[in-house]
Design goal:
The protein is of the alpha/beta class and 300 residues long. The chain has nine helices and ten strands. The protein has a single domain, classed as Rossmann fold (3-Layer(aba) Sandwich), CATH 3.40.50. The strands form two sheets. The chain has a six-stranded mixed β-sheet with strand order 6-7-8-3-9-10, sandwiched between helices. Strands 2-1-4-5 form a four-stranded antiparallel β-sheet, with helices on one face.
Length: 300
């Protein structure tokens, strides 16, 4: 059996000291197999971005063990982490983070400059990547001349140019309209089909249609983890979406924009306890329904 590409065991991340200490991640354990498309949901401040930063080697955990492709990376020095991050992980951000005074082609080629790739070769690779995302005709445009969807597609091309194994997308559609959001998620779906492992943070339950698995977070911990079918909204996200009365069209589209602000006592399964199972070994429908009702009853 092959080892997971990502393995976190009892990972915690603390900020501050003494009475001012904030627990951003609380003993998180998570394994992700190569080729998974994982969505991460939860309220603002629940630890989603911190988890992505730890997995992407932008931040070091305070406690716990992180294995990346069978290598322990929890305590590596900064230069070692930077090299592994450069060669293994591609990042896509909500705000695109394109450099406005560089052309689209130069933005996409930028990561290759840190690997010592010659100018002609990195521009050629960047051009090929822009063709892959359908924007080769925008090579000499500048970021301010692009639409939101185009800018995010350029950011995806930049994330892919180093041919990383893992793509981390933190709210990749957060600044986009619905049409641009679909364009970006379809593009990520195509990237996933080529064998990349993708993790994306979202507040929108509709986007779980693209995931093979969805993880739900609250107060720095993972409280629910479910496999999903491509093309279908994740079961828990769907239950929440249809049990919350939305007052505006935007609320309805966003669904669970703050999925878990407060979890009543007893709503989460204690760590280590296995889910209720039927004789066939599957989690019972009654248990699933109960969990969904409890999450749906959260005060948003």
């Amino acid at each position: 059996m092959t080892a997971p590409i990502i393995s976190l065991k009892d990972i915690s991340k603390l900020y501050g000291f003494g009475d001012a200490t904030t627990v951003a991640l609380d003993e998180v354990s998570l394994t992700i197999e190569a080729g998974e498309f994982v969505g991460v949901m939860g309220a603002s401040g629940c630890g989603k971005s911190t988890l992505m930063n730890v997995i992407g080697l932008l931040d070091k955990p305070t406690h716990g063990e992180y294995m990346l492709r069978r290598r322990s990376v929890s305590k590596l020095r900064g230069t070692q982490r930077a090299k592994i991050r450069r060669d293994t992980v591609g990042f896509i951000f909500q705000s695109f983070n394109l450099l406005p005074k560089m052309t689209v082609l130069e933005n996409v080629a930028l990561p290759l400059s840190y690997k010592g790739v010659s100018v002609s070769r990195r521009l050629r690779q960047a051009s090929n990547m822009l063709e892959r995302v359908g924007l080769q005709d925008r090579e000499y445009y500048y970021p301010p001349q692009l639409s939101g969807g185009q800018a995010q597609s350029v950011a995806i091309a930049r994330a892919l140019v180093n041919e990383p194994d893992i793509i981390i997308a933190d709210e990749p559609t957060g600044n986009l309209d619905s049409a641009s959001s679909r364009l970006v998620m379809e593009l990520l779906s195509e990237v996933h089909k080529t064998g990349h492992t993708i993790l994306f943070v979202t507040h929108n339950p509709e986007l779980t249609r693209y995931a093979t698995r969805v993880v739900y977070m609250h107060d720095g911990g993972i409280i629910h983890d479910e496999a999903t079918k491509l093309g279908e909204v994740a079961a828990t996200a769907r239950e929440v979406m249809y049990n919350i009365s939305a007052t505006t069209e935007e609320d309805d589209l966003e669904g669970v924009s703050a999925l878990m602000k407060a979890v009543p006592n007893g709503t989460t399964r204690p760590r280590g306890r296995k889910p209720n199972k039927t004789k066939k070994g599957k989690e019972s429908k009654k248990a699933k329904s109960s969990d969904a009702r409890k999450i749906a009853s959260i005060d948003l």
